[in-house]
Amino acid sequence: MKISSNHNYLQLKKIWKLTPSLQIVFIILLFIIRVLQEYFSFQHTGRFNSGYPPDPFLLFAPIYEEIIFRNWIFLGLQKTFSIKSSAVLSCLIFGIWHLKNIFYLSPIMLVYQILYAGLFIGPILTFLVYKTKSVWPGVVLHFLNNAISPLSWLIISHI
């Protein structure tokens, strides 16, 4: 089954009891929480939680990555492939995308991030976008994932 090209996953739609206005407020609140989290981490340790160099654009990663990987790539692949193949390919590309962090992460952390992105969170985000027909629930989950990811990195780095 293929999705027609007239679907617009960027459009906010009512999901459960969350109206588009409430979704926007929720996304803004998550963004503010993430900014404050990074700010307090930097004040306390001199580094950002994410382990990346201090770059304010990292706070926009959940938005632009969901638009790129779930709206453009996932939907674009469906013009040629089935939904399942499109999901697998877009998730693999999403995992490979994290090679961009090669200069900031240790080799084991880089492999962990690539596998986690491509085989765990990518499929969850793709399924969420497929079911809701909107990238915005995926953006919210992506924000939450990024907010707790430093904890998983801490656990993995001690293995």
Mean pLDDT: 79
Strand content: under 5%
**N-to-C span:** 43 Å
Give unreliable regions as ranges: 1-5
* Biggest sheet overview: none
Taken in chain order, the helices and strands follow as: HHHHH
Rg result: 16 Å
Note down, in words, how this protein is organized.
By secondary structure, the protein is mostly helical. It has a domain at 59-157. It contains five helices and no strands. The protein starts with 19 loop residues before the first helix and ends with a helix. 25% of the residues are buried.
Question: What labels describe this entry?
Answer:
single chain; 159 residues; mainly alpha; 0% strand; disordered N terminus
In short:
It is built from 5 helices and no strands.
How are the SSEs ordered, and which strands pair?
Elements: H1 20-45, H2 61-77, H3 83-97, H4 107-132, H5 136-157
Helix pairs in contact: 1-5, 2-3, 2-5, 3-4, 4-5
